[in-house]
Specification:
three-stranded antiparallel sheet; 90 residues; 52% helix; 3 strands; alpha+beta; single chain
């Protein structure tokens, strides 16, 4: 299993115990470079229409906030579903 998949598995098992920099690495893998990366916030634009964003904020001890980790997981699941649908239709 590659590093991103290992981090994803940990994110699903224990969202409050994931380091901020690991969540940012996973987001870069799925969503590309962040739209904003200043201060304690990193904002990623989602690949679907509209102006949806995922905001990651560093919490205590260098960990990402658990509710934001869960939002990232929902967005990744959606990206994977849409990729799967596109592959099935070709």
């Amino acid at each position: 299993m590659d590093r991103v998949e290992e981090i994803l598995a940990r994110m699903r098992r224990h969202p409050q115990g994931v380091r901020f920099d690991e969540v940012v690495a996973v987001c870069r893998e799925f969503f590309g470079e962040p739209r904003q990366a200043r201060g304690s916030h990193v904002v990623f634009r989602m690949p679907w229409p509209g102006d949806p964003r995922v905001n990651i904020q560093i919490g205590r001890g260098g960990h990402a906030k658990a509710y934001q980790v869960r939002q990232v997981l929902v967005a990744i699941d959606r990206v994977r579903r849409e990729q799967s649908r596109r592959e099935e239709s070709t």
